[in-house]
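Notes, Module 5: Reading structure tokens.

Key idea: the token line is not a picture. It is a compressed description, and you learn to read it the same way you learned to read a sequence, by spotting repeated patterns. We will look at two proteins. The first is printed below with its tokens.
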Amino acid sequence: MEDRDWDRLVRQLEAGQVAPFLGAGACHGTLEMAGTLAARWAEDYDYPFEDRFDLSRVMRYVAVTDGDLTYVKGEFLKKHFTNIPPPTDPDDPHVALARFPLPLYLTTNYDDLLVQALKRAGRAPRRVLCPWYDGAPYDPDAFLPSPGGAASDEPVVYHLHGHTGHPESLVLTEDDYIQFLVALIEDRNKEEDTSARVSLVPPAVQEALARRPLLFVGYSLRDWTFQVLLQGLVKSLPTTHRRSHISVQMLPLPDTATDVQRRDAEEYLNRYFADLKVSVYWGSARDFFRELNRRAGGTP
């Protein structure tokens, strides 16, 4: 990222004109990462295949073996998402983003860290779940602030992949991811009939995607989740509607990679993202927000 990218991002954040997407990497250091969880469940269930670090495939095997998908999701949440301490570090992505008057936050994480950070910042967040599965609760007015309230004071946290309070809502197994993608495609192809129709991308989210720059935090280009967001949401926008976006990425190379390999990988990935008008910060989410806080004048 260049200085002009930083300066533009700070101004847009302070004006509440950014739509952030938070992925698993935003929780690094607080929650265990997917590969670690996959290996643990693979060991417990004698997973017979080689891809023991692929959480979605391991959990599909567990669900089929157990025979009760919702029960498995509930057990997954009990084991890994219980008694999580709220974020307090100013450089934590949730805390850093909560300080800005953004009306909408989007996340593919299951946890409540963002809601906790927003409450700690004196705001009144509204949690909304994406209705990607049959029977999901859906309220077309969920994105509207209370009478007399301001959207920035009552921001929406939109959980695309479910939330800990609703085990059935989790996009966890490989089948879940496929179902989510199919539902997203079907949703895009629906005819506009009524504003109350069940939609994975409600009007408020559509407007944010079309009119605001996006900030992706905690994703890797190799993540299935990130590819769905890019292909299903960002690339679907007319090129005239695309803003200049930013993505915080860890370079997907082993520690043994040479300087030449790192340079070639960065050059390739920068070219890939340039087609989508995405500037890339190569590093961890905490390093990114430490620099952002510095450039935004420190933490309040």
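Here is the second protein, with the sequence above and the tokens below, as before.
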Amino acid sequence: MTNPESAGQGGGLTPGLYLVATPIGNARDITLRALDMLATADVLAAEDTRSLRRLMELHGVALGDRPLVAYHDHNGARARPRLLAELAAGKSVLYASEAGTPMISDPGFDLARAAAEAGFAVTSAPGASAVVTALTLAGLPTDRFLFAGFLPNAGGPRKSALRDLSGVPATLVFYESPRRLPEMLLAAQEVLGDREAAVCRELTKKFEEVRRGPLSELADHYRETPAKGEVVVLIGKGDSGSVKEIDLEQEVNKALETMSVRDAADFVSARFGVKRRPVYQLAMRLSAKGESDGA
């Protein structure tokens, strides 16, 4: 499918869906191409219409008599048919997320998928992204990373989700609410080990903050000094998996001093990036040996 802009001559956009990235904090972080699209699209849709109106006003882009349609998690099923009908009528439809790049933790996914499945051209005007901005500032490896979105709110499911990610050989990136930040960091330490991490807050805004350190240190800091604003958490890769058996034995014994067999196996396997089953079996043997020695 060709880029719908490619056939556009004479100032207007050709029919299709245009996914436009918007600033994550600083209003000047918008591309010239995005402003051109905002000025010329036949129909505008936005996760937050008030935010898009303010952005257009700041940059002198007139809405005129063009429709501006709200499209978010709560009304997507109702608004989507209207936007698809506009596409079918040969209109250019622009969708903008509230902040950042559409499709990244964003309700526009269903709209883009429906448009593509219906055979309409879909293209993107890339720009600001909190995930990528945080990666550039965190000081953690960027050769491989995994964006995991928001973790579950409840403690048990949160730890389960972290365990599922424990063996991923990449920097882990999460969105988190400032209210849950200390608990999330503490849970990550318990499950993944005390890895190096970074908390990036209010990116591109006046009070931007990047704090780096072990998970335990960050958890203590944000428990004492509650965070405010938008938060991205990045967690470094676990220690190398090439660990000698004696090292594992020492680590498991140390973990068993304060943890159950199951928790010790989870903790050590996550920390060293090794398979859980052999670590669990080792923990069982060491626990049984400790009980017999103490008898």
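Summary for the second protein:
- The chain has three domains: 16-128, 131-235, 245-287.
- The longest helix spans residues 276-294.
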